[in-house]
Amino acid sequence: MRLTKLSERRLRPACVSKKMKLSFIRPISCCSVSSPATSVKPQKPIFLRPPTFKTTISDLQKWHHWAKSLISSVGSTFLELDNGPDSELLLRELNWLVEDAIETPKSFLQQPHKNYNDNSSVAVRASLEQLYMLWKRRVEERMPFQYVVGCEHWRDLVLSVQEGVLIPRPETELIVDLVDDAIKENGELREGLWADLGTGSGALAIGIARILGTSGRVVATDLSPVATAVASYNVQRYDLEEKVHVKQGSWFEPLRDNEGEFVGLVSNPPYIPSKDIGGLQAEVGRHEPRLALDGGASGMNDLIHLCDGAVSMLRPGGFFAFETNGDEQSKFLVHYIETKKQGNFSKVKMVSDFAGIKRFITGFRGR
Amino acid sequence: METVVQSSVGIYSKPFHSLARKLIKASSGPITRVTEMDRRRGGISLLTSHSFFPAIRRIRAMHKSITSSPTVSFATPEVGVTNTETREWAMQDFYTLRKDVETVLERVQEIRAAAGLKQLQEDLAALEAAAADRSLWDDRAKAQETLQALTDCKDKLKLLRDFKTQADDAETIIKLTEEMDSIDSVFLQEASGIIKELNKALDRFELTQLLSGPYDKEGAVITITAGAGGTDAQDWADMLLRMYVRWAEKQRYKTKVVEKSVGEEAGIKSATVEIDGRYAYGYLSGEKGTHRIVRQSPFNSKGLRQTSFTGIEVMPLLPEDSTNVEIPEEDLDISFTRAGGKGGQNVNKVETAVRITHIPTGVAVRCTEERSQLANKIKALSRLKAKLLVIAEEQRASEIKQIRGDTVKAEWGQQIRNYVFHPYKLVKDVRTAYETCDITSVMDGELDPFIKAYLKHKYSLAANPSGLT
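Predict the joint structure of the above. Result:
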């Protein structure tokens, strides 16, 4: 009920939408919102910034050349060290950075062997100093490429991301397909209320909102104020403020008002066992938020919490899909649901990702 | 009478004076030749361009006026230059025109041979018999089909006849001019006009005949994959990439290297180029197969002769929604190349390559150039469909289901061309036997002769599956 009121409130002119986004969190008194949280300002991805910086082709080429030499010095050392990117992948990333940062990337990328004396001017979306700094951080500090450009291409979306927010993974794209399959089978799911728990950048919430019917809604929750700010920004960029409501708080807490009303729950919760965090690829372990990765000793603390909560949150016939760390966790959770939640769920199964790893568990709330 | 014509054709390529002399010696008088011409014109009347009629009439008139002077010779070009009328048409121009006529005659002959005239006439006879059959209208749909095929066949035969008569007309003008001691500029102008129009018509015909496949007018996607042979093969793949991009630029096609995987030392492991422009696929479809290089490898310290291979795949660049092919999900094996490991949150790599294999046929495609997995999957699926459609077309299968998977691999991997850089220079197509020593130009994108030779080869194979010409 409250949700409808909220959506009415949000039907305001676009000029106030920025304020709205921040005030959006406030009315929800039930969840703990600390005041500094509301002041988190999402960063604009490079490709959305205006090309206000001017530089010359030759200076840009010098930078490009420097960036490439940095890449070739990497070779396969990161790959051998912690399964990080090799020079081939870094080269691809560099091309994408050029695509995002330069107003006319094609002409630049397609004539890489032009002489270094070309003083014609190019419009760039970041200063040359920033470009040097960003690429240095990418290679030397192993800052994830997505934080460098401030975005991640995910499904057909380009989502804004920044430090403090988990970068959505390609595997997770499949959850939207799983939801799509479920709503194709049951039309009621298309028009109902969904929740994305631990939404991060808002990827799943947005992906699902775009396949729901006109009255379908998604509530996206996250404990991190940076995540809720970034998710809200992404929701706004895809004009989905009517459909997706971002709430700050832990798991089901912000959803108590709608208990038992949800037709679907999805989540990509932290699932990496604490002991494994130290050995992660540097881009992940050193830069991505531990809050979004660490699932406790077994890695399943949050997954178990979600399975427990799903019983009371879902309507009869409601659907759930959770991402896991792979075969072992999925098998455990299916077993857990079948024994501990006997009779509450039906058609519980494991679904593999494209690499053949049993990445997801899905099922329906019994009727 | 016949001998006149035959002998004149036989010596056609000889220098002008000797030709003229022979012609005149062989001829049994101008009148017979006019009759011969008339006989031939019998079948032409409908087809010749209107502008030609007055010219023909004038030829006849002039012929009659020629006094019997078999000794008149065109041995020296100056003879004609003295004539006031030839100020516009100098001997030089006449030579050029004659050369053009010779070329066009050859071309018409080639086209008629490639079109499989004999087969067409047999088809026509069979179709006429079918159309005359009493039971024709028993099956209305089949009757219409038969009648349509009959019309098509007649049209094509008529067109091929048109070409011949027009070329013959031009030839006649040339012969008569040679015979007469004067150059008539109006005359030659008309011959020149015929040649021009005929060449255009032949171009159109060739294009429609050679590029009449359902996807021929589309753009093309070329996938280049270095074969075994390490750095040398990867360098070879890079050379071929450059060759095709250069070729496309010459045709003023838009090219986009959408994916490129660089080799460790030099060259490329693979690359995908989209070539956008009308008929790009039609021209390039014959390039698919294995390309072999023989050279002294720059990557071989001993400088030994080395052979490397690169595979080329060509598919039509079809608009995303144009492929209304539904492939059942269970027929697809979609794998997501994320190198080993635990995946998910554990890994953050921009590698989102998708490889889709069509299980029943074993046909596979890979897409790595997009930034999201879904985008790669969509693109890969669209490429897979394009590839399956092409294979179905090649195998004359009406559905994807009928594709014989076992033959696909063999056909698509067939060695089609050799590029020998050492010990001699030669590029030779194994299918058409077309060859050139100018390997530099070929590597610079001079592929047209190879492409044309292949298209003709393919066309004549299709017209005469049994190998008859």
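Chain B has two domains: 4-208, 219-462.
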